[in-house]
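Model the whole thing, not chain by chain.
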Amino acid sequence: MPRTRPNLLERQRRRLVVPFLLPALLLYALFMLYPAFTTFYVALTEWNGVSAPEWVGVDNFTRLTDDSLFSSTITNTIVFTVLGALVLFPGAMFFGYVTQRLPLGRLYRFLILAPVALSVTTAALLWKFLADPNFGAVQKVLRAVGLDSLASVELLGRPNTAMLMVVLATVWHGIGLWMMFFAAAAERVPAELKEAATLDGASSFQVFRHVVWPLMWEVTRTLLILWMIQGLQTFAFIIAMTNGGPLRATEVIGTYLYKVAFASSEFGYAAAIAVVLFAAILVLTLLSQRLTRRESEQY
Amino acid sequence: MNRRSLLRATAVATAVMLSLTACITSSDDGDEPETESSGGGDASGAPAEITGDLEVVSFYPEGSPDFERLSGLAEAFEAQHDGVDVTLTFGGGQDVPQIEARWRADDPPDVNYGFLDVTLPDGGPWVAAGDTMNLQPAMEQPLEGYDGTWEEAILPGVRPLISVGDDIYGAPESVTTLQFFYNEAIFDELGIEVPETFDDLIAAADTIKAAGIAPFTVTGTFLPYMQVYWDYLALRHFGLDGLQQAIAGEAELASLPGAQEAAADLEALVADGNFLDGFRGVDFTSAQMSFFQGDAAMILMGSWLIGEMAAAIPADFQTGTFAFPTVDGGSGDQDGLFGGTNAQVVAAKGQNPDAAEAWLQFIADPANQTAYVESTGGISAYTGIPAPEGFEDVTAMLEEGAAFAPSYMGVLALSQEVQTAYQQPIAQLFFGEIDGATMLTQMSEGLQAAAG
């Protein structure tokens, strides 16, 4: 169908929008577009942050392909994201659904949501001290219940447990928010559908699996993509709890980028890492959207 | 969108981007910082009437004892210079990048730490760019409270740590060294003499371990503190030059005479549970706490330990110190000490460089230096200031002009490849994952690879 030219009134209305949008566009250009374009430019230079950047073309990107430290951070970032999803999503979904059915559900939700109010650094340090092998509460509790062999494990000092601890701390801190999303999604499911399934003899799990879950899929899909973005960008919990250790077992792209930039003053190389991270997030987000697309259930 | 609208939108977008570019690129073109000193004080040392705001970076977070001490100094400085308003800004730890960002934006605090790297011939990028003020003219003037010039008031061994070529760019706030601290009560009870050789140290560790106490504590989550053990053994066995060349990739570490022995000694030290259980998972605060609670008898740590942990040290705790022991047959430096100085520098583009310079001289005042030593147990960098107990040898050494080996071999500012190549094998040895020979091979190969 051929496009019709907007009438005069419509054109005037559109013009009227421009001055209202301009302040927001200016701020967006200043704080989003300009830094983004600058990052792309810096990625093509060698820059120590003080003297003038020196143009090196794609050298920083070539160097990335040979950087074994960067490769290991990609693996660790993926491990964090997948492990986090495996802990976060079942947990948030469980709490979101169960607290809806419990008599004191709102109170439980409040308690689960409360850690969100803590700053990330506070939450990370709290977990760091809880897991301290000498003075931490986790070890004391384990010893008190006779699990001395487990108590002697340095949770943040061993490569195979450190990442799990960081994931647990991250999930503990944020799960309340994700629970609320799931609870809101579950509340949108019409009660008649659940009652009908129950009357047909479905168990609680079957009601959830075959009625509630399919109707929550669109929300779950969006949250999965959001988590993936958050997981790929993870930084604060790791820098505060392990600083990428032990033996770089928790070094992720975000912490590596930070160290390359601010400890080693290689801003050009750090910018190249940032560009790659940006591209990876963009591609994976589009890919996830495509792969998780299903026909929406209508109700 | 018709053609006219498209052109209009393009023009607006272009204007916006050009304005932004102009805003951001015009900041460093000839804008001279405003100096608020009214008396025109200059580097010739002529007394200046200091006024205006002065922003001083503090290493220490608000609420810490050191911050309180610094606040007291700021008040005293304001009382001495009516019209000066001192602001303390936390710039330690993870906040360092924020301060650096302000330097890049030509809005630096007046008095800062860092921004001077004397291990580089040009003093590092900030000095090379002229952003760090050259204090040499002021250093050549007499300093109140001392006989002679400001430069002469600084201990000879400290001067190289603040100099680039013939010019001084920083004023030392204090001296820091890395040595062993030990629990005197445990040593006395077990009849242990202060170790002088590495064999003495191992023997002392065996005795302490037999008594059911951990000989050493260290943090496994901050690699530089494990690295220091290797640095010292390397210093004793084959010397600073060889180690520096190996880190720069100019020499093969594993083939240096004495390197194998240093690695074997480190393996012997970390073997058999010499370190407190769980050290892999503790941070440095926890490690230090376990020392002061008597869970471990020794800790290899910086001279700031006592000041940093003052609030947590039991009243009856007796701390002794000793230098890292010598090694038999070592061809390296048997007396060398790793250390450095907390140097304060003045930002050339700061708002009030005259007041900043006056602040540095105020910090150097004998009364303030003495108060610093007495309240923190730290070491002064100035002549004639009594050394704290246990550090008399350090001060004497610096008075004689002997130089420190740079703390952590300066690797913390090097590339991530070099840091990883140097520190990770040491951590792996401490964690019992590899032996000394493998550590040496990995370090050697890693450093060569990092150097390209």
